[in-house]
Amino acid sequence: MNLIDALNWRYATKVFDKTRKLTNEEVNSIIEAARLAPTSSGLQPFEILLITNQELKNKITEISYNQQMPSDCSHLLVFAVWDTYTDERIEHIYDITTNERDVTPDKYSAYKQRLKTIFASRTADQNFAHASHQAYIALGFAMVQAAAIKVDTVPMEGFSPEELDKLLQLREKGLKSVLLLPLGYRDEANDWLMTMKKVRHPMSEFLTIID
Ligand SMILES: Cc1cc2nc3c(=O)[nH]c(=O)nc-3n(C[C@H](O)[C@H](O)[C@H](O)COP(=O)(O)O)c2cc1C
């Protein structure tokens, strides 16, 4: 299946087949796609939590306006974003980069200082919003990889981040939840959305060519 066929095949799955589970290999490849997503200045300001515990998945459905996808899916991903940028967080990723690329310790000094100054001049809310954008790109990468291997997903903003942060004790770790991504297989007999035509703005409304 080529990529465009895979993107036409995927849809926001509303009813998952509770009996089918992904293999570890499938789950790992979807998370790896998210990990490989580009981020602003390479800071990768978010983490993924992988949830398989059924009791916890049920609780997450309760704080997701009772949408059943978190409880019925095979594996649930939570995208949790840094609450702000800090000098320590910037230092840490550049320590990894310096080490992996085997460059001199001062290679990124000026660049790091610029980043620290920029983020320190903004509020925590502004930094959190900036960091959240990076997580949305990774969500897209994960969804595309899932479609490529014929795994169903539904991106979800419809939950209470405050409740989820409490449940998973994210704030204590300097994180805030922004997105859920249930993974699994569509329930072909019961998912009313599966057979509905995919609707998008026509290309004539979507694209402007400027020569
Ligand atoms: C960021 C984001 C949040 C979404 N949140 C929800 C959600 O909470 N519940 C839901 O059923 N669908 C959710 N959707 C799915 C969209 O409604 C769906 O992707 C859109 O209508 C396009 O349809 P398609 O994905 O089937 O092509 C969300 C989609 C995105 C991109």
What does it look like?
This protein is of the alpha+beta class and 211 residues long. The protein has one domain: NADH Oxidase. Helix content is 45%, strand content 12%. The protein has helices at residues 3-9, 24-35, 54-62, 69-72, 87-101, 109-120, 124-148, 161-168, 203-206, and strands spanning 46-51, 75-82, 152-153, 175-184. It has a four-stranded antiparallel β-sheet, sandwiched between helices. Helix 2 crosses helix 7 (124-148). The longest helix has 25 residues, at 124-148. The radius of gyration is 19 Å and the shape is globular. The two termini are 33 Å apart. The model has no long low-confidence stretch (mean pLDDT 98). Flavin mononucleotide binds at residues 11-12, 14, 67, 154-158, 198. Flavin mononucleotide is lined by residues 11-12, 14, 67, 154-158, 198.
Number of strands: 4
At the fold tier of CATH, the topology name is NADH Oxidase
The whole-number mean of residue pLDDT values reads 98
Rg, Cα atoms, Å: 19 Å
For the biggest β-sheet, the strand order reads 1-2-4-3
Morphology call? globular
CATH architecture: 3-Layer(aba) Sandwich
Bound molecule kinds, no repeats: flavin mononucleotide
Order of helices and strands: HHEHHEHHHEHEH
Task: Give a short summary of the structure.
This protein has helices at residues 3-9, 24-35, 54-62, 69-72, 87-101, 109-120, 124-148, 161-168, 203-206, and strands at 46-51, 75-82, 152-153, 175-184. With 211 residues, the chain is α+β, with helices and mostly antiparallel strands. Helix 2 (24-35) crosses helix 7.
